[in-house]
Every structure is written in C-alpha cells, then in structure tokens.
Amino acid sequence: MTRPIWSDERTAARLLDLKPEEFRSLVEAGHLPQAYELAPGLRRWNTAALEKIASGDAADGRIGW
C-alpha cells in the first residue's frame, strides 16, 4: 500500500496515534499545523510533514506553522 501525499483529518490523527478530537484540539491550539486548502472545502495535511513531527525531525527550531 502506498503512503498518501495528503491526509484527511482522520488519517492525520491516526498517523500521530491520536483520536480525531485530540488532533483537532492540538491544531486549534497551534501545536500542530493547519491543513492546506487544496480546493474550496477540501482541507488536507501534508503526510510527510506529519511524519517528521511524529519522528521528532521537525523539532529543529524552525517550525513555522
């Protein structure tokens, strides 16, 4: 199975081992990045960016969300 380039909220939460409600709360608090609006009403998270967060590779002091 190939890894998606973009993840919906449920998949993004699952990548970080969170419930969708927990994921949404962390996004709203600014602890996780906002989704990109790929088209009107179509919001997705960059899967590679979420994987960097999960592995700790995003914690280089230059996080800009």
Annotate the secondary structure layout.
Elements lengths: L5 E2 L1 H7 L4 H9 L7 E4 L2 E5 H9 L10
Antiparallel strand pairs: 1-3, 2-3
Helix pairs in contact: 1-2
Short description:
By secondary structure, the protein is an alpha+beta fold.
List key phrases describing it.
alpha+beta, 3 strands, 65 residues, 3 helices, single chain
Rg estimate, integer Å: 11 Å
Shape: globular
Strand content: 15-25%
Which secondary-structure class do the elements indicate?
alpha+beta
Task: Count structural domains.
Answer: 1
Uncertain segments = none
Distance between the termini: 29 Å
Summarize the biggest pleated sheet: 3 strands, antiparallel
Extended strand count:
3
Number of helices in the DSSP assignment: 3
Strand order of the largest sheet: 1-3-2
Order of helices and strands: EHHEEH
Mean pLDDT: 90
Can you put this structure into words, describing what you see?
This protein has 65 residues and is of the alpha+beta class. The protein has one domain (6-55). It contains 3 helices and 3 strands. The chain has helices spanning 9-15, 20-28, 47-55; strands at residues 6-7, 36-39, 42-46. The protein has a 3-stranded antiparallel β-sheet with strand order 1-3-2. Strand 2 (36-39) and strand 3 (42-46) form a beta hairpin. The longest helix has 9 residues, at 20-28. It is globular, with a radius of gyration of 11 Å. 11% of the residues are buried.
